[in-house]
Amino acid sequence: MSPRTNDGTRGSGQEATPPAGAPTASEARAASEARVASEARVASEVRAASEAPAASEGPAAAQAPRAASTAERVDALRRFAAAVRRGRGPHLTSCAVLLAVAMTAGAVAVGGDGRDVARAVPGVSRAVDADVLVRGDLDTAIRSLQAHVREQPRDFGAWATLGTAQVERARTDGDPSRYARAERAFARSLALRPGNDRALAGQAALAAARHDFAAALDHADRALERNPYSERALCSRIDALVELGRYEEAAKAATVADRRRPGVPVFTRYAYVRELRGDVRTARRVLHQALGTAAGPADVAYVATALGNLERGQGRYGIALRHYARALAADDAHLPALEGRARAQASAGDRAGAITTLEQVVTRSPLPGPLVALGELYEDRGDRAKAREQYALVDAWTALARAGGVDVDLDTALAAADHGDPAEALRAARAEWDRRRTVHTADALAWALHRAGRSAEALPYARRATATGYRDAAFLHHRGIIEKATGHDRAARASLTAALELDPGFSPLGARAARAALKDLEAAR
């Protein structure tokens, strides 16, 4: 977790009318139930394939399968997406297995830059610090740790560090099959040294990555009982409280963490908590402080990207692009910076440049956020076939993520509301709201209700999404459209105007829809 634009898929909010011959509500519901059942079968097939034991000897969590190229992994995902669209049958099963094999084969051995990394790496000759490894070259760290635990299988600290590195790598390469490896590594560490804080803190990070934030909070609290100064546990605790919507507690946790372990990971979380409360000035100041203390290229890239995201959300695209440039100068393979740069390019009017950059991102890490962003850019230029392919890839990733134990209802709700099945979007949004009540889940539920034709029910949630002071143009756009649909024209004009003044290029389709809605409201005066 980190200051972000939301790791979930932020849809455009584009208005659409049902096509002629659209299915009835009962037909849509039946189709949605059939798709959920199909996804469950697929998830089972993927899980079975991805958890098959390796043929080589040694501890399961330490195995290093053959290197698959990034292109192979993405091609497998694309074939899987096509199979999902076609439906069930032997082809779907074979593609599920292909996807699992490709994703797991590349999970340990493929680096972010696509280089051949199957060559041998020297083992670790001594205990290694988790933070040093996680902030460095993760692929090298993982290979070194695997070699180390094969040689010294009773090193509980190395097992915990290996699990942590797998979690962090999954965040960047979008491969949720890594989580099962991380889980086994943490279990091995705890079996060797019950209750050790490094493994407990790692389990907290793993639970957060899987969006099980209640479990993340529990693991973090247990780790902090053992070691009150564990940076990872302190940070995971902030993340969990934020994602559970417990913002006041998150602010207190950030203050405690800042007192105990001041540094880049804590500073960035402290800034995000302030941003959620509408205090952008303090968030900006703290991030600049963090950038000034960043010790290595990875930290510089991380903090500069956070600053870029903050400025882009305020409509300051030129400043945002300079921050992304600094991040990429420090680490030219930092995917969040590439994605941020693409979104800032699109917002500033360079749609062709944005498409080129996002194509680089999704080729290396096909996550829902950049896939939807790229699909909307294709749609904006009239290339609907390419847009549909990106949205289908989101469905494929969702099935794989569920197989890896990740809660993806927020991602599903946001993508499906604009580019899929409104009934499925509403189901997912309600499920996520029942689990955690944040500004993001409130916005997702509001928009899903509106897209399902239930705007009156949506309005309280849209208002709740904007009640903390957090300023997000997509939230304001959704609220304005819902206010317009419920006859609150004056409020709708205010919300839509605020969205476009804050971040006029927040989404190629959403910004266009907001301007069209404002034009309609003005014409009706």
TrEMBL record:
Q: Which Pfam families match?
A: TPR_16
Gene3D superfamilies associated with the record: Tetratricopeptide repeat domain
Q: Where is this region: Disordered?
A: 1-68
Q: Compositional bias (Low complexity) spans?
A: 45-68
Superkingdom of the source species: Bacteria
Which portions of the chain have biased composition (kind: Basic and acidic residues)?
A: 30-44
Question: Ubl conjugation: is it a keyword of this entry?
Answer: no
Official protein name in the record? Tetratricopeptide repeat protein
